[in-house]
Amino acid sequence: MTDKRVRTGAGFGRMPGMTKNGRRWNHNIHYHPRILGAVPEGARKALDVGCGEGMLARELRRAVPRVTGIDLDEPSLEQARERSDDIDYVLGDFLTHPFEPEFDVVASVATLHHVDAAAGLARMRDLLRPGGVLAVVGLARSRLPHDLPRDLAGVAAGTLHRVVKGHWQHPSPTVWPPPVTYAQMRELAAELLPGSEYRRHLLLRYSIVWRKPLA
């Protein structure tokens, strides 16, 4: 099978750094508040799936005492570890790594389209303790021409954000196009995470938030 991952970011043709206003911005970072707003009160342990260079993990650490990040991309993890914080960064595959189902929060941004979406959602679900929260921001494939007006609006909005804020290119490999459509992701969320909240967002992303039942 052809590997569709493409290396971007530091050391691969683009310089690392901040955006024009001194803060990082891109489409994924824009929706970090969707993840952070879902962190349950009193959460003690969080897992960032596909953590890359650790930006979301560091944001989670401000609210959660113990944070673990896992990623398959070693160069990105090397960047994360350069921060010398107390986050536990794991080089590995979250689908097979022997985590215990003990996390109060499992978070993921722009990772599900790198794996089988159903297997990924099920694995994240199973790593939660009862009462824990799964929060996902992801990419999906549009159905044309049905989704064209929404996509054009998203491209216009994204362009405006770039002009105002600049754009930070993350260092992790990318996959394009996403193998699963927005409609298929909505169906998977309803099937695997009953009662979850699925939202499609303007800047070409979707989110899923779900709390695991206590019993």
From TrEMBL:
Signal peptide: none annotated. SUPFAM superfamilies: S-adenosyl-L-methionine-dependent methyltransferases. It comes from the Bacteria. CDD domains: AdoMet_MTases. Residues 47-135 form the Methyltransferase type domain. Residues 1-24 are annotated as: Disordered. One of its GO terms (biological process) is methylation. Transmembrane segments: none annotated. InterPro entries: Methyltransf_11 (IPR013216), SAM-dependent_MTases_sf (IPR029063). This is Methyltransferase domain-containing protein.
